[in-house]
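Need tokens for this chain, all 112 residues.
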Amino acid sequence: MHAYVRMLQSADERSLLLVEGDSDFRILRPHVDDAACSVVIGYGKHSVVFAIQSMDRDRVDGVAGLIDRDFDDDAQMYQSPNLFRTTLYDLETDLLIYAGLLAHFVASTAHV
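Here are the structure tokens for all 112 residues:
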């Protein structure tokens, strides 16, 4: 992943946001300014974390990662200002809860 990110950076001046997989890409892509940032599928949490570790070690700017919190212990996870975690279990759960989608769904389908 490190070499792939470096290759992308050599061909494109935009920042890169690495996400775990297809669903994260499909959710985030329409909400990211394409002129400023490219969303890139990182093919799994560990791959994204490793890529961010490598970028941090090499002091490469312009690359951030977004991973699901899952059930991981934050104390054991790599810490970096370039690595973001969902607040809850995963991106979909964050959207359901924080964007009010779950409440809207329940309200619209409940038989009262």
